[in-house]
Write a structure and sequence with these properties.
- This protein has seven helices and 16 strands.
- The protein is of the alpha+beta class.
- The longest helix has 49 residues.
- One of its GO terms (biological process) is proteasome-mediated ubiquitin-dependent protein catabolic process.
Length: 374
């Protein structure tokens, strides 16, 4: 039976990996720009510091990476790009150095040990952090690993490297918390209205203010009771906060505040009034345009369907189209239209025979109202 011994590749084992929010945001942004809706993963470099077994990951950047889906042993990582990027990052913050690399797995792959070996040239014991950019369960989306070398005590004495899981957590400084909070406010959910989002944000801000005020009050109570020593530096900071508060009991300040408020309300009132007048003006213009359009439609000549052997006829206005029905009897006051040789005549006659007609270009001598040409 083989006896397996694990040998740490560095002097001190890694006990914990702390990932900052900026790193998560950068990795997610890289994934959605490069590998969204694909089966590919993105790879990058982790920057930070290591102290007493705790790796603090504070920054990251992406690195061009390609691999063969069918043959995991074929992969490419642009280490020249990595060296150029690290040189520029080092100019900005010399305290950050390479602590490992990341992958959007979402799990370990066969060639990860080979890629991990490449980063051994830049850091003695790099860490691998796998980020699940599309988690299905609520929880920390990071898994951290580091490599150890296992030696089998048998005839071959052959060793191999394996990954060992290490606990990871998400932590941030106070400045980062404020920045992330502002960034998350810009993330809009289509299922939530703008008003609900604003109210939720204001409510969260007020709750935070209330918690901080309670913390200050608790500290002052402990100082008054003698349970905590008096710290003049903290009191100076509190005094600076109180000095920022306005004194609303000054008459001049109250008057100035009222004048400014009235001016703002006057501007709002005038804006609303102007908006109403413009809306009424547009409504009247629309009514007038619609009326003119209707008149223009009524004035257009209408076309009568053509009769066999004759050209199509047209009539104007409220004239009645010719009918094939026989003329009505005497005493009918209805208007009658008689067509003759391309001329349409509107006649209002009391006594017209059913056989009466006009041929050629004759003129009707009956009680005609008008002669309409087309």
């Amino acid at each position: 039976m083989d006896v397996i011994k694990s040998q740490q590749l560095s002097a001190r084992p890694i006990e914990k990996v702390v990932v900052h929010p900026l790193v998560l945001l950068s990795i997610v942004d890289n994934y959605y720009r490069v590998a969204k809706d694909t089966h590919k993963r993105v790879v990058g470099v982790l920057l930070g510091s290591s102290f007493k077994g705790t790796v603090d990951v504070t920054n990251s950047y992406a690195v061009p990476f390609e691999e063969d889906d069918k043959d995991p042993s074929i992969w490419f990582l642009d280490h020249n790009y990595h060296e150029a990027m690290f040189s520029m990052f080092k100019r900005i913050n010399a305290k950050e150095h390479v602590v490992g690399w990341y992958s959007t797995g979402p799990k370990l792959r066969e060639n990860d040990l080979d890629v991990h070996g490449l980063f051994n040239d830049y850091v003695p014991n790099p860490v691998l952090v796998i980020i699940d950019v599309q988690p299905k369960e609520l929880g920390i989306p990071t898994k951290a690993y580091y490599a150890i070398e296992e030696v089998k005590e048998n005839a071959t004495q052959k060793s191999q490297k394996v990954f060992v899981h290490v606990p990871s957590e998400i932590a941030a400084h106070e400045v980062e918390e404020i920045g992330v909070e502002h960034l998350l406010r810009d993330v809009k959910d289509t299922t939530i209205s703008t008003l609900a989002t604003e109210v939720t944000g204001k409510l969260a801000a007020l709750k935070g203010l209330d918690a901080r005020l309670k913390e200050i009050r608790g500290y002052l109570d402990l100082v008054i009771d003698g349970k905590l020593p008096l710290n003049h530096e903290i009191l100076y900071h509190l005094q600076d906060v109180f000095n920022l508060l306005p004194n609303l009991n000054v008459a001049d300040l109250i008057k100035a505040f009222a004048v400014k408020t009235n001016d703002q309300m006057l501007v709002i009132y005038l804006s609303s009034l102007i908006r109403s007048v413009i809306a009424l003006h547009n409504l009247i213009n629309n009514k007038m345009l619609n009326k003119e359009h209707e008149k223009a439609e009524d004035a257009k000549p209408a076309t009568v369907p053509p009769v066999a052997g004759k050209p199509p006829l047209a009539y104007h206005g409220n004239s009645t189209a010719p009918s094939n029905s026989p003329a009505k009897s005497s005493g009918d006051f209805a208007s009658k239209v008689t067509v003759a040789g391309g001329v349409m005549l509107k006649a209002s006659s009391l006594e017209l025979s059913a056989k009466s007609s006009v041929t050629g270009t004759e003129k009707v001598n009956a009680d005609s109202d008008e002669v309409i040409d087309f």
